[in-house]
Amino acid sequence: MADSEPGIGKKILSFFINDADATPQKPTATGPAPEPSKPASAPATVTNAAGAGQIDKKFVEHFVNLLEKANLPGPDYFEYKQALQGMEGLGLGEEKQFQAAWASFKVMGGAKDTTVLKTSADQYLGILSKDRDSFLKDVEKAIKERVGALQEEHKKLEETNAAYAQQIIDLQKKIDDNKNRLGQISGEVSEQTAKINTNKDSFEVTYVSFVDQIQSDLAKINQYLQ
């Protein structure tokens, strides 16, 4: 299909995302008209090979634009997918739907065997895979730039806190040492005060002894040597 065909983006969107477009589809000339689309609803949680999660609108639009730009000229997987979608609501089983869509595809001028479907589908898968690889590289880069910076900040803060904690331990040890010394000083003050007072008392006794002796001698000199 040529890139310029009107509405291909909406067609791609409706192929892969249920209830993505609230506007009813118009019938085509080459097949039965699909049932009107239901009003858009909130993204539902889905589970597939990628895990469980919600389909994100911004990524839906991204993939739609990507596939729209990559659409190959001529009938291929997308045209078959469109025919397959036209089989919905006819009460056919899955196998019958695929077979009827294949018959409709061949009427549209598609190839006579399914090779073109497999080849074109593989090409689109390759385009999606290449886009995913590019996205994951961007994710890795963002993690290194943003998360890495936060992790580096986290590491520095932990190292700073560890240094502060060690400083607190060191300061506490100094405080404890000072407290022990304060206790020792109190005892030493009492001890030294007692020693000094004892020495003072000895000094005074000795002093008085000398003074008394000298004064006694002077008194006797005055008495005996007149």
TrEMBL record:
Key words, A-Z: Coiled coil
The keyword Coiled coil appears for this protein: yes
Region (Disordered): 19-45
Coiled-coil blocks: 140-181
Name of the protein in question: Uncharacterized protein
Species in which this protein is naturally found: Dyadobacter endophyticus
